[in-house]
Design brief:
29% helix, alpha/beta, five-stranded mixed β-sheet, elongated, 4 domains
């Protein structure tokens, strides 16, 4: 949540008793942040946190999520209009009023909506969009008008919401996501994990399932390369139909650019961020830890390469791989992907003993073999691609997230092994 500097902020607790639908506002604490007055701030001490601030030069809000009564699929603009009107009518924090409801072509907007906050009014030209994409959000952001525009959609992904914020386009979706920024006003709401009440009419493909993530991995391993769909099919081993659906969704999200049949990553950082938000190391891998007497981790890695068969060679990841790509922390363990876990004979050859915790060798069998399709060589070792190493470091301890950030910030990130 953004906050203007040097402004005094009054915090309040906003309580609602079961007997009354009217919140009771009482002061909680006063923090002096500067010279200008902030007449109102409220915090609701319920399951979803909320805060509301109105400043002389800006109004800032991060408040509760008001959701519809049941899960819905919106298939027409008429349904979208009615659902939006219902949602805003039940908003217990913000006070909305539809100034103009019926659309007129000469007006250039589908409706006019007014927000009243502590005696101040803010008007918005509303555009109802059934299926938001990067292209139509960009068009709306560039549209000129007397009032700021407000995009209202059934569902808006975090990726598209981020692009709207970058372009200064106000938005609201029926799951409670809201962002308003205009003169003297800044409002932001983020839906909670269980707040989804509206699903898209056409469910988009899962970009980051175990199998579908092969496409993101290929794109991020070669961010400057131009692709055709046929080349991506061959590179990933996915079906042509699945690649087509994934590409279509990536283009709609503005993550992939398309010029006729040529595809090029448009927003590599946003693509990696979206993948990281869905990444679940524990779910997509089966990990076994081993204890070895050998203290030299590089010697452990060499022994692993020597003992495993040619068809089951390891692909190193996490700290050991990141240290070979861009040293930042001392690797605490050697971790590697393998097609299958070693049997007792191979464990004896490795001089490795299985342990439940504290092992210096971690072997991980991935849910999908896509991790073996995008690799790189550093010296005598095969490593996972940089994007995969980054993702694998995020959920672990031993300064894993710090090493992940250092690797990603490095100018050689995503440019292949030495």
């Amino acid at each position: 949540m953004l906050r203007a500097a040097k402004m005094p902020l009054l915090n309040w607790t906003l309580d609602s008793s079961p007997e009354s639908k009217v919140p009771c506002v009482r002061p909680l604490v006063n923090r002096d942040l500067g010279d200008e007055a902030a007449p109102l701030c409220a915090t609701r001490a319920t399951e979803t946190s909320a805060s509301l601030c109105l400043l002389n030069s800006a109004a800032l809000l991060c408040s509760v999520i008001t959701t519809l009564s049941k899960l819905k699929t919106i298939t027409t603009e008429a349904q979208l209009r009615e659902a939006a009107r219902e949602l805003l009518a039940h908003d217990s924090v913000l006070h909305w009023k539809w100034k103009v409801w019926e659309p007129r072509r000469e007006r250039g907007a589908d409706a006019v909506l007014e927000l009243e906050l502590d005696g101040r009014r803010f008007g918005f030209d509303v555009e109802f969009v059934q299926t938001p994409t990067a292209r139509n959000t960009s068009r709306l952001a560039e549209r000129a008008g007397g009032r700021p525009g407000l995009l209202i959609a059934p569902h808006l992904s975090e990726t598209l919401a981020g692009q709207c914020r970058e372009r200064g386009l106000n938005y609201l979706d029926l799951n409670g996501r809201l962002w308003l920024r205009t003169k003297g006003l800044l409002v932001e709401r983020q839906p909670g994990a269980s707040s989804q009440r509206v699903r898209p009419a056409l469910t988009p493909p899962d970009l980051f399932s175990a199998k579908s993530s092969r496409l993101a991995r290929a794109l991020l391993s070669h961010p400057g390369r131009a692709w055709t769909q046929g080349e991506l099919v061959a590179r990933t081993g996915l079906s042509a139909g699945l690649v087509s659906r994934l590409v279509h969704h990536l283009v709609n999200e503005g993550l992939l650019g398309q010029d006729q049949r040529v595809l090029l990553v448009a927003r590599a950082d946003a693509l990696l961020d979206a993948w990281a938000a869905r990444n679940d190391w524990a779910r997509r891998t089966t990990v076994r830890q081993y204890s070895l007497l050998e203290p030299d981790l590089e010697a452990v890695a060499r022994r692993l390469v020597k003992c495993l068969p040619t068809s089951g060679q390891p692909t190193f990841t996490q700290w050991f791989a990141a240290n070979l790509r861009h040293p930042y922390t001392t690797p605490p363990v050697v971790s590697a992907y393998v097609p299958e876990l070693p049997d007792e004979r191979l464990e004896r050859a490795l001089a490795a003993r299985r342990v439940t915790d504290g092992g210096t060798l971690w072997l991980a069998v991935p849910e999908d073999d896509g991790v073996f399709r995008e690799t790189q060589r550093v010296g005598e070792f095969t490593l996972a691609c940089d994007a995969q190493i980054y993702l694998d470091l995020l959920p672990v301890g031993w300064r894993g997230p710090e090493q992940a950030k250092a690797l990603r910030d490095w100018k050689g990130f995503g440019k292949g092994g030495r």
